[in-house]
Specification:
It is a single chain. The chain is an alpha+beta fold and about 260 residues long. It folds into 3 domains: about 1-100, rbstp2171, CATH 3.30.2220; about 105-135 and about 235-260, no CATH class; about 140-230, no CATH class. Helices cover about 35% and strands about 20% of the residues. The protein contains 9 helices and 11 strands. Strands 6-7-8-9 form a 4-stranded antiparallel beta sheet, with helices on one face. The protein is globular. It binds zinc ion (ZN). The site of zinc ion has 9 residues, from loops.
Length: about 260
């Protein structure tokens, strides 16, 4: 029996992270890592609201458990510091090396009048999901600048990481967030600032929030578009309904969409 179990040496796999530009060695997740995560994921998918923070924390724990230390004995990156695009790629990779690559997703025809004669409901199709077909949309920028009353204001930015998502999880759970929540979210992308020749480093978080609260929308829009253009994976498939011939687009463009 022992010789049989010896076949099962710990598996090691390599993945290159596009945004961080580093290669990681990882292992598949085990039953202990995965139980809490799968329960939270199915709960989240069923409700679509609430539970986002718990789910992100479970994903953080799972990733940290699966990253193998390098030759210096250290893990090259902490889950919290992963860019959200790298986070998506890594989570899908871990799922694939653990469960196998085949995933199929069910999509319902978007035409509300569509009726499948067998089910009396809109037609449902099954599409294979292959992560290699997903592309990165958006571009990382280190800073943004605008002119404010004749002076150049530069905001040195922070990337959109798993940490940013955990820190702002409440935002994803409320339908109409108030401005305070939005300003806190935006402030988490501000590293430091310069105005003309003056550089403002080590700004307390509450001062960043206050700064954004006072900034008028015509200037704040520069930060808003920075956040919108932060890289994210997009996966799209067009399909034609065989019942009503409507053209449907199946799309994944939110982080949790990918974990099917
Ligand atoms: Zn249809």
């Amino acid at each position: 029996m022992s010789s049989l179990l010896n076949i099962l040496q710990p598996e090691r796999h390599h993945i290159k992270l596009e945004i961080a530009g580093i290669e990681l060695t990882v292992r598949p997740y085990n039953h202990g890592d995965t139980k809490a995560f799968l329960e939270l994921l199915s709960d989240y998918k069923a409700k679509k609201k609430g539970g986002e923070k718990k789910l992100l924390l479970a994903q953080e724990e799972l990733i940290n458990a699966c990253i193998i230390p390098d030759e210096t004995g250290r893990k090259p990156i902490k889950a919290r510091d992963l860019h959200r695009a790298d986070f998506v790629a890594l989570m899908v990779f871990l799922k694939n090396i653990t469960h196998g690559e085949e995933s199929h997703i069910r999509f319902q025809c978007s035409n509300k009048k569509c009726e499948n004669p067998e089910t009396k409901n809109p037609y449902i199709t099954t599409i294979p999901f292959v992560f290699d077909d997903a592309v990165i949309k958006g571009e990382r920028k280190e800073k943004i600048s605008f002119d404010y009353m004749g002076k150049e204001v530069t905001i040195f930015t922070k990337p959109y990481t798993l940490g940013t998502m955990i820190q702002n999880a409440e935002l994803f759970d409320i339908d109409i967030p108030d401005m305070e929540v939005i300003h806190k979210f935006q402030a988490s992308f501000v590293d430091y600032l310069s105005v003309g020749d003056e550089v403002y480093e080590d700004i307390p978080f509450k001062d960043k929030v206050e700064f954004l609260t006072k900034l008028t929308p015509k200037y704040k829009k520069f930060l808003v578009s920075y956040i919108e253009e932060e890289p994210i994976y997009i996966w799209e498939k067009e399909w034609k309904c065989p019942i009503c011939e409507a053209i449907n687009i199946a799309i994944f463009d939110k982080v949790q969409d990918f974990f099917v």
